[in-house]
Write a structure and sequence with these properties.
two-stranded antiparallel ribbon; five-stranded parallel sheet; globular; 9 strands
Length: 395
Amino acid sequence: KMTFSVASAPLDKPDSIKAASARLAKGYTDGLKRWNEAGVDLSGYDIINAVDDVYETRAALGYEKIVLRACSFGSQWSFAYLKRWPHTVDRALLDSIEPLDNAYDSPDWVWASVARVAKDAEASETLAPYIPEAGLMDALRTVIKRLDNQPISVDVTRPNSTETVSVSLSGDDLRMGPALRFWALGDGNELAGLARWPKFVLELYHGDYRMLARMVLADRAGSNKKSLFEYTLDNSLGISQARDERLKGETARQWIETNFFYRATRSLDGAPQEVDDSFRSDTPIKAPVLFFHGDYDWATPLENAQHAAKFLKNGKLITVQGASHCSIWYTPKQLPKQRPELTEAIHSFIDADFESVAPKTFLKSLPDRIALDPLVFETLETPALYDQALDGESS
């Protein structure tokens, strides 16, 4: 696998976005140099070549047209294919939408996704008694400001060990955490992680930083190996100057930094060339396209799909209430388990005979919104998340 290594951050000093960016830039630059010197032509590891590989594979297999079925970056790959080879696309079924100029996520839109979960948590009968008067989002802002003003050190044990280590924490440990840290709370089950996230914030608000320290310890002491291909692909898409300036000025950027890893590695020596603004621009899509997107998606916010849906001439967006990222394929505990009949209806779009029924007519038969079961949020009456993690190791 083509990877590059990033230096570990020290445990005894608060980390920062600036320091993390410098480590990442050095690791990526060293990786580019190493693979170039090994004879790998990295100019081929970009979005244009990725698209043209699909086009040429289609031709080699003898297909006049193909169906695009994808999620997350795969949707962006599909938009690039539709931009370059639209006459070879029969239809597209896409989840967790990323338009071509949206590789860099909007902090405001991600923050809005977080706020949707917070709003539902505040309305939950089991959690409402524990919510501060100003609300869960204000509690999170308070924690970040508190750590900005006074970084702290927290003693935790290394996973699957009895060794105690001290981990220094800063506000940036929350800002640059993967979607504000909910990923690590559910052991791979995103809905379980989201159900625990309000408890995580409330524990921080009340001064228990142990679970955050445990997650930061895993980040800083991990393998720190990253996929070179993932970075070259994303950086070959880049971002338009207009969008870049707009995102830099968004209000939520003071609370969440969604793009520091792109900014740290963009346009470095040895990286593939970026596409231009004309390629990244929104373009009307004539082929039948069905979007579905969870409103709890913190990786590619729902607003991405709402924006892109404006350019579909024969398309539809289904909003999945209570779903997170890639809710139909990569996280089967969401749509396929909870709403199998609607999942089957969505998949029927692949086989629909659009010679017998017009795409718009077929799409009208599908709902505009699907609601998953309401999350049962974990309360503060259960053991602390850190203690639960330790109990899980011993069981």
